[in-house]
Design brief:
Length: 212
């Protein structure tokens, strides 16, 4: 075998060895990638918070400034009473802000995350306004009386609300009353026009009656 053949063979073997050494760590790194396993408690809370966000018409966020156990119990009792002794289920839930933020980010309400500051508790209900017209107003008023709770905002149905928006919405009259007011507003001009048209005819009829 010539010297050139031997050199060519050695170079080929070295290239093959280098390819093995270069590729092997990559395969090892790829095989070590694993899915993150969260603690069961975190998974449970994440699922609970996701259910609160997605399956309730109204979700209002309050900052919780060291609310005591007794105070929390009193607030829950108030919600039970204004809901008709539980006829319209309402909840006040103290949440872990980080996990609640993670749950929000996976929903169409992700922009609410900017409201989260410090310890948080969540008021939620799926009650229908037609059946319980004063529920939201009485609930928010009762919660707002506690100085350790600060309303930050929330959502009703698919509408995101600031603190001012929530206060305006809960202060609105019931839907049926609004409809009645709207119908009255629409019909009022027509009634006034009809009265104006009927007045001369009525006066003429009165004059003719007196002359006859």
């Amino acid at each position: 075998m010539s010297l050139r053949s031997v050199s060519h063979s050695l170079i080929s073997n070295l290239k093959s060895a280098n390819r093995v050494l270069i590729n092997y760590p990559c395969r090892r790194t790829c095989n070590n990638k694993k899915t993150t396993n969260h603690p069961p408690r975190r998974v449970y809370l994440y699922d609970q918070y996701s259910d609160i966000i997605n399956n309730n018409r109204a979700v209002f966020i309050f900052q919780n400034n060291n609310l005591g156990v007794n105070e929390f119990t009193q607030l829950r009792q108030h919600l039970f009473e204004v809901s008709g002794q539980g006829a319209a289920p309402t909840k006040l839930t103290v949440v872990q802000t980080g996990i609640f933020s993670a749950a929000l980010r996976q929903t169409k309400y992700a922009n609410l995350e900017t409201l989260l500051s410090g310890p948080i508790c969540i008021f939620s209900t799926n009650a229908d306004d037609a059946e319980h017209p004063d529920l939201l107003k009485k609930s928010v008023e009762g919660l707002a009386k506690n100085k350790k709770l600060l309303l930050l905002g929330g959502k009703i149905d698919d509408t995101l609300l600031t603190q001012a928006d929530v206060l305006k919405v809960v202060d609105l009259p019931p839907l049926q009353q609004l409809r009645g007011q709207l119908v009255g507003t629409i019909e009022a001009p027509a009634r006034r026009l009809l009265q104006t048209l009927e007045q001369p005819a009525g006066e003429l009829h009165s004059v003719l009656d007196r002359r006859i």
